[in-house]
Amino acid sequence: MLVTVAYAMGAPAGGAGAQGAPPAWFNMLPLVAVFVIFYFLLIRPQQKKAKEHKAMLDRLKKGDKVLTSGGIYGTIHSLTQEKAVLIISENVKIEVNRGFISDVVKAGEGESEKS
User: Coil, strand, or helix at residue 2?
Assistant: First the structure.
């Protein structure tokens, strides 16, 4: 019984190019639409944010007040290509990877530069 139902649901006897069948590329449209949606909602904003973060890291200079991704506030004492030495208290300096500086803080306000 199951086999006869399968034959009944099969392609019409007219062959592969039956009338009314959509073209093969038409089946790819939902996949393309999903990719476009992912690009504009996820990929593009993430690339933009990474570009802004890199520009912020390139603008860092001695004396800037910064916030690390670990939540530590400090003032930049010295910079190298990969590391930053922060003063977090009197006579207390720490070295952090430059990429872990998440924001530059305006002097005296305690608010980020983005605000």
Answer: helix
Residues in the chain, how many?
Answer: 115
CA 38, chain centre distance (Å)? 11
Residues 62-69: what's their mean pLDDT?
A: 95
- DSSP states along 21-61: PPPGGGGGHHHHHHHHHHIIIIIHHHHHHHHHHHHHHHT--
Give dist(CA 18, CA 15) in Å, integer.
Answer: 6
Reply yes or no on whether the pLDDT at 15 is more than 80: no
SS3 5: helix
Task: Please determine, looking at this structure, whether the domain spanning 61-105 carries the CATH number 3.30.980.
Answer: no
- Asked whether the beta carbons of 73 and 92 are under 8 A apart, the reply is no
pLDDT, tens digit, 9 for 90 and up, residues 35-45: 999 999 999 99
So where are the chain's domains? 24-57, 61-105
